[in-house]
Design brief:
By secondary structure, the protein is mostly helical. The protein contains seven helices and no strands. It has one domain. The relative contact order is 0.13.
């Protein structure tokens, strides 16, 4: 007879992974500060924070409406010149992937 131990621990781990996956399923409103963390900004941009990036852009960005008012081509050009990404959408997509990874690992 073979005795297998640790199955209860495995089941608990699988249950926790399922719970985390369910928590990130669907559509969520995520604050930009949760996406563009200082760590993300330092690794991927010329800035230490999203606030510093907005300030350096030459535009006053305090709301989503402020950000949407910036001409897309101008904003993408700024993002392309000062980050690892070619566009704002590319930057946000990468940040969202990192955010989801943190959530799935239980870090966020």
């Amino acid at each position: 007879m073979i005795k297998i131990s640790g199955l209860d621990d495995l089941q608990r781990s699988l249950d926790e992974l399922r719970r985390r996956a369910e928590s990130i399923d669907g559509i969520h409103d995520v604050p930009i500060s949760d996406l563009l963390t200082p760590e993300f900004m330092l690794l991927n941009t010329d800035f230490e924070s999203v606030e510093a990036m907005f300030s350096a852009s030459g535009h006053e960005v305090r709301t989503n409406e402020d950000l949407k008012a910036i001409p897309q081509e101008e904003w993408d050009s700024f993002i392309g010149a000062r980050t690892r990404f070619g566009s704002w959408q590319d930057l946000l997509s990468a940040a969202a992937q990192e955010y989801l990874g943190r959530k799935f690992r239980g870090e966020a």
